[in-house]
Inverse folding.
């Protein structure tokens, strides 16, 4: 005879077949749900944090050939937003236009000229030889009557001995790598910055509003800081396996003998860059050599080499 | 000259015995009559000669008195006082059980117990707090989880870290400067669930003593506090059980004789089951933690006992998911489209094991405890996705021994001396990778770092007359690491001068040395903070602390009052340098900075332990700062948990034997924070892009808003005479839902950006059912 289905009996039967832990969980379930329902998240409290005083921010670069490029902006409050939300009108506002910028070296002062249509960038005449001299930067912003200055010593330019850009297949995957070597002068401590990038991005970077690149993939494939305290041989060589595939046929390899101060500045930026590092690293105000401002005045003369893609030879 | 000081001190202690007259010794153990547990700090006092002593950490006492009749008064807080009269004509053994004062509401019992509370005023010890599970189980707790550490944080001088966490910052010190001992073994990780619950299961704990200053010489190795936790022992006479069911976890404990009056066992377990409960709703929370405590007690003879105890606890997160195939329909389109398995796990746990042998020598004046222990703290983070696997481990392991002697030459002198040796093995950041990820993150074994610490100590707690008692001694500590040897003579002194009716002033000075550090982030709490030994370049921490206080007992009100002031300096503290990388970085020494700390303050404690209404009012006024040459431009800054004011009010009211009500109100000044206050753009080195770089305030320049909260707990018990005792706890944490800020961040409110101070826990109700038989 077919048994009649009884829902309560069936539930009791199901319950009796459960493991003791499951039975306990079943009993606790309503209490747990009730606790979750009744629990509250406290309302956030507000707090006033005095904003940092806006200051002029200096970044600079010597273009191979001896042209000094100085970019002048202004720092701003943390409450203005982040790189996703800042409006282009605001970006225009923090660029320092009409500044009076000059560099002094070997007893000669030269006014830096603003680039037409590119606000905030000031350049020297090309062909200057800064090497081994002390160079001072002065910037005056007439709109705020604020002035800053910075001094640095220009180190001898060191070029890489060789740079090669390879493409090969490994486990059915295309892999790009770069080999480079350079000779380290043995008599003094040296610090180096190298940067591998798409040459087309660089051209774009100086021909449009520099701040339009905020937060974007900017064509830099690889960056590294090297200190000669970590190797002994005069010749340093290395092969870098790049994490991303490079569509360009040519890469630019920018290599600069930099000062220790600039190395510290770049190193602290590198340590705290990226989502994970910025969330987990200790808060830091990056070192600066700008008196009365932020950023870093770098006057080191880089050498650039271009390398075209070739198949790797075994 | 320096090296002769310990020898002179030791000889001074020992010679005193030679001057003793014709005397006899009474010795034995004072225990709880209900379960045979040893009672620590119970008073044994001869009413006729007015000489007395207290039991040691094993409940043992020894008192040597002239050959006369004696009338011993044996008392302990929460127990009925016993009077034992006997003729002392030879050495006698007197093991005496005390009965818990069930009728503690009766006046007669209260007056008898008063003597024990007076000991706090009369002893040389200062900066000391004793807590018992019985006392704290009534106090409200998050989720109804009774927590020793959270209660300790309610005491003046013990500042809590982030909200709900088990971090303790004692008298301006850091969290790694607390020596946490569980049955003599060091416990390195105090918290479960990222520190929100402590690893101590209240059912397995007999008592806890916290010392904030005036450290006796037998403690060493940390600068700021000692938390000595003792596990329960199994009853040698009869079986008991207890347990509880709460919203978050369940507990079960039992203890009893395996061989009556010879061998007993205590075992206790706790496990959370929110994973199982949520599983019923289909939600996945693959996380739980558990604790297991066990202890064997073997009474070989009246003079010898052996204890084997162990603790194991783990936090386990194990997440596994199949990532959908390309079109997300769960159906494979081809052999390569079957979905990928993603596994992520996290395991973090302590294991401690202790083997102890207590021996009483023939003269009954010398008690010996010999301990062998091992402790291990380890965390593993593992992940697997497609062919990539990652395992990150970090471990610290100790193997050690302690030989301690208690010598009771006469009632006015108690001498302790001993030898401690421990070998530490550290292996931070072991990384194992497989698949493509191994190209970016290389496998490495991590360097095995060793540190051997050896210490000898001696101290005498001596009563010069009715007014003056002095506890003086030294600890000669050393640490041997590859390439370096560190040693120090650590003098310890505390003195008490009594005057008037239950009034005393106390003074203490201690020098402490610490041969290991814990490196942790100043801005975020990571469960993966690393312990690190001293090395050639990382020097031992040390501190000088002086403290002075006034202690008063109010006999009629059963209230004790203490006011203490302290001044502490700390050297060779470590911090990460600014911008230090915290993850997967085993080159710590390059990232660490040495600095100096200073703390001072005052503490007020008014505590009532007896009667229907019990509790305490604690208040701390303190300041703690740090100076590091390479931080904050070398300028002195406030310590992160430098809370100027800290108030706690704890009240328990036993309305009748079946119903109790308790509440906690805490208020403390906000902790310090380094907040972002600006930003600027800076191009990368090739000028092909621009990054947004934050700027910050001076270090710890922002003081978060004061936090305060009110917690309540109602307890409803069944009838007291029943053998099976049960009670319901109905509680609420943060009753008025006030935020206790832990950080400052920028948030967009829909119109503007603003600074907010978020808090973690709001109003949380709880319900729990506990039982005992």
């Amino acid at each position: 005879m077919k048994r009649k289905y009884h829902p309560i009996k069936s539930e009791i039967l199901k319950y009796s077949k459960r493991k003791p832990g499951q039975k306990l969980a079943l009993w606790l379930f309503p209490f747990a749900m009730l606790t979750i329902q009744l629990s509250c998240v406290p309302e956030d409290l507000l707090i006033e944090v005095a904003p940092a005083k806006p200051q002029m921010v200096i970044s600079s670069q010597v273009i191979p050939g001896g042209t000094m490029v100085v970019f002048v902006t202004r720092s701003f409050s943390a409450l203005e937003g982040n790189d996703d939300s800042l409006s282009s009108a605001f970006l225009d506002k923090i660029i320092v236009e009409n500044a009076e910028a000059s560099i002094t070296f070997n007893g000669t002062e030269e006014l830096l000229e603003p680039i037409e249509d590119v606000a905030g960038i000031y350049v020297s005449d090309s062909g200057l030889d800064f090497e081994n001299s002390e160079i001072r930067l002065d910037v005056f912003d007439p709109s705020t009557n604020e002035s800053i200055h910075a001094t640095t010593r220009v180190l001898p330019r060191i070029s890489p001995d060789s740079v090669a850009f390879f493409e090969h297949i490994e486990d059915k995957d295309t892999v790009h790598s770069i080999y480079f070597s350079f000779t380290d002068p043995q008599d003094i401590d040296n610090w180096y910055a190298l940067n591998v990038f798409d040459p087309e991005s660089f051209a774009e970077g100086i021909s449009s509003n520099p701040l339009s690149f905020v937060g974007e993939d900017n064509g830099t494939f690889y960056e590294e800081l090297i200190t000669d305290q970590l190797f002994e041989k005069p010749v340093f060589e290395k092969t870098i396996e790049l994490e991303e595939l490079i569509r360009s046929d040519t890469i630019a390899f920018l290599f600069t003998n930099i000062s220790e101060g600039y190395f510290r500045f770049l190193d602290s930026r590198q340590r705290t860059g990226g989502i994970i590092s910025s969330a987990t690293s200790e808060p830091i105000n990056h070192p600066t050599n700008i008196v009365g401002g932020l950023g870093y005045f770098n006057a080191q003369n880089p050498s650039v080499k271009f390398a075209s893609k070739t198949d790797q030879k075994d | 000259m320096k090296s002769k000081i310990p020898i002179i001190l030791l000889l001074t202690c020992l010679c005193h015995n030679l001057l003793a007259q014709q005397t006899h010794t009474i010795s034995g153990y004072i225990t709880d009559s209900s379960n045979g547990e040893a009672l620590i700090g119970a008073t044994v006092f001869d009413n006729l000669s007015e000489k007395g002593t207290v039991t040691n950490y094993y409940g043992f006492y020894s008192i040597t008195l002239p050959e006369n009749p004696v009338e011993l008064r044996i008392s302990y807080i929460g127990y009925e006082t016993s009077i034992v009269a006997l003729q002392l004509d030879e050495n006698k053994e007197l093991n005496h059980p005390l009965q818990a004062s069930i009728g503690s509401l009766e006046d007669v019992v209260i007056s008898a117990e008063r003597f024990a509370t007076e000991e706090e005023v009369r002893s040389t010890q200062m900066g000391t707090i004793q807590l018992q599970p019985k006392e704290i189980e009534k106090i409200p707790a998050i989720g109804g989880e009774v927590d020793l550490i959270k209660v300790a944080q309610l005491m003046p001088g013990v500042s809590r870290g982030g909200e709900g966490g088990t971090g303790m910052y004692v008298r301006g010190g850091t969290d790694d400067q607390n020596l946490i001992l569980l049955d003599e073994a060091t416990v390195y990780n105090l918290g479960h669930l990222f520190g929100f619950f402590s690893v101590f299961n209240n059912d397995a704990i007999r008592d806890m003593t916290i010392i904030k200053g005036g450290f006796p010489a037998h403690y060493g190795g940390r600068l700021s506090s000692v938390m000595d936790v003792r596990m329960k022992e199994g009853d040698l006479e009869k079986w008991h059980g207890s347990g509880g069911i709460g919203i978050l976890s369940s507990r079960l404990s039992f203890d009893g004789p395996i061989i009556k009056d010879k061998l007993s066992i205590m075992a206790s377990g706790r496990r959370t089951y929110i994973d199982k409960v949520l599983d019923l709703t289909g939600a996945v929370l693959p996380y739980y933690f558990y604790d297991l405590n066990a202890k064997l007690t073997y009474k070989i003879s009246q003079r010898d006992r052996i204890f084997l105890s162990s603790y194991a606890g783990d936090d386990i997160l194990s997440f596994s998911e199949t990532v959908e195939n390309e079109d997300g329909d769960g159906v494979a389109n081809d052999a390569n489209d079957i979905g990928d398995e993603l596994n992520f796990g996290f395991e973090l746990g302590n294991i401690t094991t202790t083997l102890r042998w207590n021996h009483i020598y023939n003269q009954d004046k010398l008690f010996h405890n010999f301990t062998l222990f091992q402790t291990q703290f380890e965390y593993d983070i593992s992940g697997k996705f497609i062919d990539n696997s990652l395992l990150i481990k970090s471990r610290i392991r100790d193997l050690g021994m302690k030989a301690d002697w208690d010598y009771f030459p006469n009632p006015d002198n108690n001498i302790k001396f001993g030898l401690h040796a421990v070998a530490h093995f550290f292996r931070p950041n072991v990384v194992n990778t497989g698949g493509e990820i191994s190209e970016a993150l290389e496998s490495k074994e991590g360097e095995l770092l060793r540190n051997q610490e050896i210490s000898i100590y001696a101290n005498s707690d001596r009563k010069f007359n009715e007014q003056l008692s002095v506890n003086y001694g030294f600890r000669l500590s050393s640490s041997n690491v590859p390439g370096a040897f560190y040693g120090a003579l650590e003098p310890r002194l505390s003195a008490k001068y009594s005057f008037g009716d239950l009034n005393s002033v106390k003074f203490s000075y201690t020098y402490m040395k610490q041969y290991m550090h814990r490196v942790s982030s100043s801005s975020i709490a990571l469960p993966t903070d690393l312990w690190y030994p001293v090395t050639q370049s990382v020097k031992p921490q040390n501190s000088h602390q002086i403290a002075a206080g006034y202690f008063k007992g109010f006999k009629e009100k059963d209230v004790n009052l203490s006011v203490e002031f302290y001044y502490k300096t700390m050297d060779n503290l470590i911090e990460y340098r600014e911008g230090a990388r915290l993850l997967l970085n085993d080159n710590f020494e390059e990232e660490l900075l040495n600095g100096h700390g200073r703390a001072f303050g005052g503490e007020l404690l008014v505590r009532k332990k007896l009667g229907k209404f019990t509790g305490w009012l604690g208040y701390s006024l303190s300041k703690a700062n740090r100076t590091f040459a390479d931080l904050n431009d070398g300028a002195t800054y406030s310590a992160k948990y430098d809370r100027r004011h800290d108030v706690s009010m704890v009240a328990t009211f036993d309305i009748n034997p079946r119903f109790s009500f308790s509440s906690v109100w805490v208020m403390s000044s906000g902790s310090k924070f380094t907040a972002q206050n600006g930003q600027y753009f800076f191009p990368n080195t090739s000028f092909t892009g621009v990054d947004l770089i934050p700027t910050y305030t001076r270090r710890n320049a922002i003081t978060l808003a004061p936090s305060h909260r009110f917690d309540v707990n109602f307890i409803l018990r069944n009838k007291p005479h029943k053998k099976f005792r049960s009670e319901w706890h109905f509680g609420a944490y943060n009753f008025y839902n006030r935020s206790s800020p832990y950080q400052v961040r920028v948030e967009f409110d829909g119109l503007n950006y603003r600074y907010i101070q978020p808090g973690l826990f709001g109003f949380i109700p709880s319900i729990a059912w506990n039982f005992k038989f």
The first helix of chain A runs from residue 7 to 17. Chain A has six helices and 19 strands. The longest strand of chain A covers residues 173-183.
